[in-house]
Structures are given as structure tokens and as C-alpha cells.
Amino acid sequence: MNEFAEALQVRPGLTAIIGGGGKTTLLYRLARELEGRGSVIVTTSTHIFKPTDLPFALTAGKVSGILCVGTLCENGKLSAPQQSFGELSTLADYVLVEADGSAGRPLKAHASHEPVIPREANQVICVVGASGLNRPAAEAAHRPERFMALSGSDTASPEAVAAVLSKEALHTRVLINQADSPERITVAYELARLLDCPVVIASLQKGELLCVY
User: Fold this and answer.
1) What CATH number is given to the structural domain containing 133?
2) How many Å apart are CA 153 and CA 1, to the nearest integer?
3) Which domain holds residue 57?
4) Cis omega before residue 115 (within 30°)?
5) Spatial CB neighbours of 114, under 8 Å, sequence gap ≥ 6
6) Full-model pTM
7) CA–CA gap between residue 163 and residue 50 (Å, rounded)
8) DSSP structural state of residue 79
9) pLDDT tens digits, the chain, 213 residues: what are they?
10) What distance lies between CA 138 and its chain's CA centroid?
11) What's the CA gap between 160 and 141, in Å, rounded?
12) Going by C-beta distance under 8 Å and a sequence separation of 6 or more, which residues neighbour residue 123?
């Protein structure tokens, strides 16, 4: 089943994933789905934990199947690969890049040096964790001071999150993840109606797609 890849319209080339609330889960979900369509490189422009269930290499040649590529760090994570993203894009049909960090928070506002989106990206998917909606920004958002400055609110309401996404204008589409309870589904739909880009509402943990706007 390629349901998430299809809903998010992932096409050959490089796709960057930013935001919070499920980036890494989405990264590996898409890789598994896309393996049926062609070869896949999974990597990062920031840091991710090294996967335990995927082949790994410091550098890549021509890829078949799925390969995780990156530079090993002392903390057990991977940082950006030694090869350029342009080179990696010639070695696999799909290159999936986690291009952001959120310190485990479901929402994210960005400092001036973030996110680290490769220029080769043909799409940028922003993941928004529904668990952060209607909570205090100080609890739910990474870089809450930036979130509050952009939104004018200290609460991560759907309106505030929509304002941050609109002003940053970093994405081509949004995945509202963690829509796994009636309350979260309700606020996810409220947010989706405020956005002016393609939106998917889902629960990655449950493997469920609820709606594609």
C-alpha cells in the first residue's frame, strides 16, 4: 500500500520533511511505501537516530531497495551525509530528507538558520502534531518565543498555528499527524480549513489516513 506516499503526492527526486510531531515516523513510512516504486535513499540534513532495521552506509553507490545514508555521530545519531544531496539524487529514484529538528515537540517555529532544506527539494512536507493544538505554546512548540512572535498568541490554537505556517511559508503541503482521538480530529479539521495549501490529516501511529484536502 502506498497510501501516504500517494496522499502526499511524493514524486521521484528529493522530498524534505520539516516540522514536528512525527517527521521520522513519516520518513520511514514513506521509504517502505516507495520501495515498491523504485529505489530510496533515507537521510538527513540535521540529525536523526540511525535506523536499526534498514541497511546503512556512510556513502552510497547506485541504490536498489532502501538505503540509509549519513555521517555517524558520537551520540548514536546521524548527521548530514558526506555526499551532496545533488549526487544522492542521481543514485536513487527517491531521496527522503529529514530537514528539521523539534526537540520532541509536536509543533515548531523556526529560527533564521532553520530548517535545512536542500535546494534540490521538489517538495517540502511540514508535519504538524495535533497533540500540540490548543495547548500553551511554551509546552507544545519548539522555539516557543518565535512561535508567539509570529502568531501573536501564547496558545497554539489552530488560528495561531495557521498564522505561523503562513508567515514562514516554508512548505508545499502539510501533514497534520496524531489525529487519533475525537478531540484531536476536531482541531485537526479546524486547522486544515485555515490553510491555503494541500493538507493530509492522519494518524501515523495507527497507519490511518482520515482526509486529504
Assistant:
1) 3.40.50
2) 40
3) 3-212
4) yes
5) 100, 101
6) 0.96
7) 34
8) E
9) 559 999 999 999 999 999 999 999 999 999 999 998 999 999 999 999 888 899 999 999 999 999 999 999 988 899 999 999 999 999 999 999 999 999 999 999 999 999 999 999 999 999 999 999 999 999 999 999 999 999 999 999 999 999 999 999 999 999 999 999 999 999 999 999 999 999 999 999 999 999 898
10) 21
11) 11
12) 8, 9, 10, 11, 13, 15, 16, 172, 173
CA 180, CA 131: separation in Å to the nearest integer? 9
* 138: its cell numbers: 511554551
CB atoms closer than 10 angstroms to residue 145: 12
Go through 162-174 and write b for each residue having 16 or more CB atoms within 10 A of its CB, e for each that does not.
bbbbeebebbbbb
Number of Cβ atoms within 10 Å of the Cβ of 182: 7
Q: How far is CA 39 from the centre of its chain?
A: 20
CA–CA distance, 88 with 60 (Å, rounded to integer): 7
Q: How many domains does the chain fold into?
A: 1
Grid cell 549526487 is found at: 87
Residue type, 91: L
Distance of CA 63 to the CA centre of its chain: 23
Alpha helices in 35-175 (DSSP H): 85-88, 137-140, 144-151, 158-168
Other Cβ atoms closer than 10 A to 58 = 12
**What does the block give as the cell for 189?**
479539521
